[in-house]
Amino acid sequence: MTRKSPVAASGIPPRTKPSNYPEPFASRVAGRRKQALGDFFGLQNFGVNLTTLKPGAMSALRHWHSVQDEFVYVLSGHPTLVTDTGATTLDPGMCVGFKGGIPDGHHLVNRSTEDVVYLEIGDRLPGDSGSYPDDDLQAVMGADGKWQFRHKDGSPY
Q1: Prediction pTM value
Q2: Alpha-carbon distance 25 to 32, whole Å?
Q3: Which of 28, 43, 68, 77 is the Cys-Cys partner for 38 at CB 3.0 to 4.6 Å?
Q4: Is 115:54 a contact under the CB 8 Å cutoff?
Q5: Rounded to whole angstroms, how far apart are CA atoms 130 and 110?
Q6: Across the chain, where does the E strand assignment appear?
């Protein structure tokens, strides 16, 4: 792939499939819009998403990764970060990181009346899995690089 010229992030189309979660979980992230900036440029080692949360929306189900690191930088709005230790309102310019392998379930929730916009950056190390402490869900990264979702007992959705 050849290098692409610089573009305005706003011109990169959002993902056509809003969520990889199976139902009944996919509908819980309604109001979330992700523009896969890293994918647009063909990046393979890490991902960068420009994410918008409408009022009432959440970034993901509360989760943590076994291997992959995550980093969030708030551009606008005031999301609430929910972790195992509680809830914290974030302001524009604030950031937070989550090291893979540390079991601290986290997600962002937009409890405000304005849109929240943030960058989320994560690596794409193989062998990752996702744990969801509040839901009967587990995720394993397949050899094809796609998430496979199962119940916590291992049975498929």
Answers
A1: 0.93
A2: 13
A3: 43
A4: yes
A5: 22
A6: 32-36, 46-53, 64-65, 70-76, 80-83, 86-89, 95-98, 107-109, 116-123, 129-131, 138-141, 147-150
Tell me the CATH number at 106: 2.60.120.10
- Rounded alpha-carbon distances, angstroms, from residue 40 to 5, 47, 57, 69, 102: 11, 10, 24, 21, 30
**Binning pLDDT at 50, 70 and 90, where does residue 103 land?**
very high
Number of residues written out for the chain: 157
Residue numbers of the domain that contains 71: 21-150
SS3 41: coil
Helix (H) or strand (E) holding 38: helix 37-40
User: Encoding tokens for residue 6?
Assistant: 């610089």
The answer to whether 129 touches 65, Cβ cutoff 8 Å, is: yes
Burial class (CB in 10 A: 0-12, 13-18, 19+), 127: exposed
155 belongs to a structural domain: no
What are the tens digits of pLDDT across the range 80-90?
999 999 999 99
